[in-house]
Amino acid sequence: MGEIPWKFESSRPHHLKARCSERGPKLLGHELCDLLIMRTSNILAFLLSLVALTIFFVPDPVGVSDVTMRAAGVLLLVLGLLATVALPEYLTILIFFFLALVISIAPPQVVFSGFLSGAAWLVFGGMILGVAIETTGLGARLAGLIERLFSQSYLHLVAGTVLIMMVLALLMPSSVGRVTIMLPIILALAKRMGFREGSNGHAGLILAVGVGALTPTFSILPASVPNVVMAGAAEAIHGIRFTYNEYLLLHFPVIGLGTLVILPLVIFWLFPDQVLKKTKNDKPRALGSGELRLIVVLTVALVLWATDSLHGIAPAWVALGAGIFCALPGVGILPNGLLLPKLNFGPFIVLAGVIGVGAVVTHSGLGTIVGKYLIATMQLWEGNDLKTFAGVIGLGWVLEIITTLPGQPAIMTSFAPTIADATGWQLSTVLMAQVPAWALVLFPYQAPPLVATRAISGLEVRKFIKILFPMALFGWFVMVPLQWLWWTFLGYL
Q1: How many Cβ atoms sit within 10 Å of the Cβ of residue 103?
Q2: Enclosing H/E stretch for 367
Q3: Using an 8 Å Cβ cutoff, are 305 and 118 in contact?
Q4: Residue 31's pLDDT is what?
Q5: Would the pTM count as exceeding 0.85?
Q6: Do residue 177 and residue 254 come from a single domain?
Q7: Which domain holds residue 175?
Q8: Is the domain of 13 the same as that of 139?
Q9: Residue where a domain stops, chosen among 63, 86, 105
């Protein structure tokens, strides 16, 4: 995993760029197309800035503090820039840090809380492990193993990658950690199979890692941050504790199996490609000393990740400790002086910033205000019919666009009793109804695993959205009704 340059051109609206590449020479010319792309991004950024600035000068609504209004302005600007990618993500995050502190919408310990989060340090430790995987040649070896198992076709490669991400979710509790470990291996696989950077096959395999680490694993309790946040908040606030098996029974048959099957098909449909380069099945070379040492380190890390409930060491500190060990002089895994030139701190900054955005939304009270407003305006009907079920999920869906996935369950769980009163549901049912909403992600900034995948791979945001939107449509029109039917069958509704 080498250094990933942050290029402005990669953050432009690539749907326009692609159209111009195909038709620009005949209609407009390349120079005019580039100018159109740049101006489109700049216009969007300018309009968002104007709206955000306007919020600072409008009178505060009754019951809404000045701090909350200022937070709303900053949030609109930052989330808009992250969604449109008018600026590189790291620059948007730095703008967020600056504005949040200068206009005092939250104290530094809240704004920079992402750097205190285990998720950010999990990424950092995973980045070091990724450099070790690449440098020792273990990544290429593992890529060759995956190739031998799934190289029958491009579809097999994509489906196999998604399946591997699901299996890892049972062993490794952090979705971001799974991305940082697997992405170097899959990038090596793409290279072995002849998928050049920018090709459909290259993008498809990256998306299989990022989205595969996210959507199917919402059905496994310890396998994703929102799951853990919701479960922890439910126990702390309401005294409700969900067991592993209960959670799995409610969500895996629809969300887990459904996305496990449909995601490879959607990737294959939207990013069609075929394997053109067949590598020779040569006899594998003997393991090098660096590879052997790294295998031991990764094995110990996986065991510790899988047993974190027994020893209490968070996955982030396991990853950081493993990374530090790899970098120690004399260990024989990473040569002295190699690590820093190879590390790209962009993913670390972006992920910490996205978590900080959610923390500021919560601290300012903006999330609670928006949630109460949505409850008052969405007309949640009493009963257990599909309309009510979709309404509750829709409430969580809107909140997660505003607060990101790590922040949404913390906010919605707090006013779950209000929703229970409006619908007549059990409080536990309201809490569990948040989970299907998480599978309806629209933008990469909402989910730390997608932020990490985007930052590490350099894959364009438009390609993430190209997958996420149809997956969300599938979720709304297929998974949500099926989830309602399944819960009704179980007597949970």
Answers
A1: 15
A2: helix 366-377
A3: no
A4: 47
A5: no
A6: yes
A7: 116-339
A8: no
A9: 105
